Structures are given as structure tokens and as C-alpha cells.
Amino acid sequence: MSGLSKKRVLLIIGGGIAAYKTLDLIRRLREKGIAVRAVMTAAAQHFATPLSVASLSGEKVFTDLFSLTDEAAIGHIELSREADLIVVAPATADLLAKMAHGLANDLASTLLLATDKKILVAPAMNLRMWLAAPTVRNVATLRADGVIFSGPGDGDMACGEYGPGRMSEPLEILAAIEAALTGDTVLPLPAYPRADAAVAGALDGRRVVVTSGPTHEPIDPVRYIANRSSGKQGHAIAAAAQAAGASVTLVSGPVALADPAGVTTVHVETADEMRRAVEAALPADIFIGAAAVADWRTAETAPEKLKKAAGAEQSLTLVQNPDILAAIGWRDRDRPALVVGFAAETESLIEHAQKKRLAKGCDLIVANNVGRGSNVFGGEMNEVTLIAADGSERWPSLSKKEVATKLIARLARQLNEARI
Ligand SMILES: Cc1cc2nc3c(=O)[nH]c(=O)nc-3n(C[C@H](O)[C@H](O)[C@H](O)COP(=O)(O)O)c2cc1C
Question: Which CATH architecture has domain 207-298+318-417?
Fold first, then answer.
């Protein structure tokens, strides 16, 4: 037996007359000790029977995409990848067209699109089909994609014409298969940068505290003062910091979001509870105050539900809540190296945000316009401007997740460059 004896070929048989020659190919592959698992298209089964293919290959023949997992406990991804090489013989004009265009509407074409292995095709068709402009274009595309071609050769066609389009003889295909199997058959995955690649590991060993969501300030046992913050941005920041390797504490007001995986989440209701939870989570390297903390609370919380008196007005006396951001920004002891605040403004965004940064002792303010029509509260997108001591930076409209990743990347860079 040759060094190919442990190799496996996934053989896709297309619907052409030359399918009869493929039976001989299976026999010769097995003589070399190469295992063959066959897939037949619907059309192929008009030219050869699954029974004869199964008998020659000694393995179950696959024909239907949707019965894969039920019948054989093997999914199409597994089937497309367990082989060392995929061979298509005969490769019909139709299969070449599907491959060139990435169609995946049956088992054969889905496997061809899902595979991570080299593909070798042995085209077989009438010469006019082979020379037709669409086939010529498809073949050029497939060659550029790295598909290996064996043939076709010139010869007499089953239809009585003479020319190119005749499937290579089994021994020629076998030689091409052997050559393909001796090289590296796994195709590299096309480069696709991870969304969080910019920050992976950048905050290893760092502690980050993030606040998120609104606060609820009780009026009486059933009513409270709230705001429209959904917590999506703050939660995304906590998740991005965690993905960057930080140990993260998220102090969250009442939101309808799941706690981010791997993040210590502390649930609070009021601004006062939030302040205490943040202080308990210090020391930290970075504090990011993304919560929409209520500025005011009622001077007193009614112990019982307030009753409506007919026609009478009801007024609430409000007192200011603790300013968590300023308390952290101006902290003498244990001040995080970077303190970041959010400014949700409805007018004069930059001017107000600059003032806020100075007033609260922050290193950075992330300013966003939450005015009418901005759709920031509760939405998936955010358009922010970063305001630092040395200037401002406007980011395009991004998903809240992208804003989070970019922000964490920037903070990590700042922290690491400053060697804090
Ligand atoms: C008798 C007969 C012979 C055929 N021979 C071929 C052929 O050699 N090559 C080809 O590309 N198509 C041939 N076709 C057409 C294909 O069978 C048809 O395009 C089919 O849709 C291909 O399906 P598949 O690519 O899923 O196997 C033939 C059709 C018939 C009826």
C-alpha cells in the first residue's frame, strides 16, 4: 500500500453520462487504499445507482441534504471536512456553475461551499456546453479560486460530436488525486478580523468598574422616577472590557438585559445604592460611568401609596442625588487612573460635555446627542464624540457594541502608553 492508504476522498458524482467511468475510479482509488465516501446528485442517480456506488466504495452513499443528521448522524459540515480531498467526477456544467457562484441548494453544492479542503474537478460535458461563454467564465473563476482541474480531454462525445468535454480517464484522475493528496490539502481560512481583536488581552490584569442603565428613585411603594436608558451601551462596554481581559464589575440599574458573561454584576435601584456599589468595587484602573443616574430623588419616600384627592394638585419636592461621576473623578484616594463619563445632551453637545468633563474631574467624556429623533435610548446604534483634555474626536454612527470595543481599545492604549 502507498502512503496514501490513510487518505480519504469525498467523491461527488454529478449527473452526466461519464458517471459510469466514476465507478471504475472508485475501484482504483480503493486499490490504492484510499477511502471513498460518495455523494450523488439527484441527476447522477439517473446514470448510476447508489447501490452500485455503495458496493464499490464499501460505504453508505449520501444523496439528500436534509436527511443527513437523521440517517447517518453526520452533518454536512462534518461530511465536507472529514475528507482530505473533495473530488467532483463527472463535474457537470451545472455543478461548475453552482461552485463558481457559491450556490448551495442541494447536498453536493452545499458540501462544496462548506468545505475547508482542496477541490479537484473532472469536467464532462458536451463540447458546446464546455465552450459556452458562461462555462468558460465559470472555469476561469474556479481556477482563480484554486480549484484543481483534471481534463477534460478531446474525443468523441456520447452525442456523436468531437471536441473538448470528455471526462479524463480514471487513471488520469487518479494521478491528479494522488498529486493533490501529497501536498497540503487544507485551505487556509480567509482572513477575517474579529470584532474584538483590537482589544484582546489589552486589559489583562486590569480592573474595570462600569455603571449602566437608569436608576429608579421611589416616590412611594409603587411609583418611581426613571429615565429612558436601556443599559445597552453600558452593558456592551462591560462585555468589551471583559473580552479585553479585564476583571470587570458592572453596577447596573434596573434593565431588561442579561448580565454579561464573565462580568461580576451588581444590581441596584437608586442612585444612592449605585454610589455605594461603585465605591465598594474600587480600587480599579478604569471607571466608566455609562449609567443615566437620576439627578434628583424625592426629598422623602412616602411609606404608603399616595392617595389621589379629587381635583387636588400633588407636588413632589426633589433633592439632588449624589454625583457619582464627580465623586470618583475628584477622589483623593484610590482614584482610578482613567475616569470616563457619559454626557447625554439634547443641545450644545460639545460645549456642555466639555464643561462636564472639567466639572467632574473626568479624563474623558463620551458625549451623545439624545435629542428628538436621535433614537439613542433603547436603540442599537450610537453616534458619539469623545472629549478629552487634548481635543475631541467624532465617531461615525456605530453599533453600541462597536462603540464599546473602540472605547475599550482606546482606553487600553491610553493606560498602557502612559504605563500607569
Ligand atoms: C442523457 C443526459 C446526459 C447528460 N450528460 C451531461 C453531461 O455529460 N454533462 C453535463 O454537464 N450535463 C449533462 N446532462 C445534463 C445534466 O444532467 C443536468 O444539467 C443536471 O441538472 C445536472 O445536475 P447535477 O449537476 O446536480 O448533477 C445530461 C442530461 C441527460 C438527460
Answer: 3-Layer(aba) Sandwich (3.40)
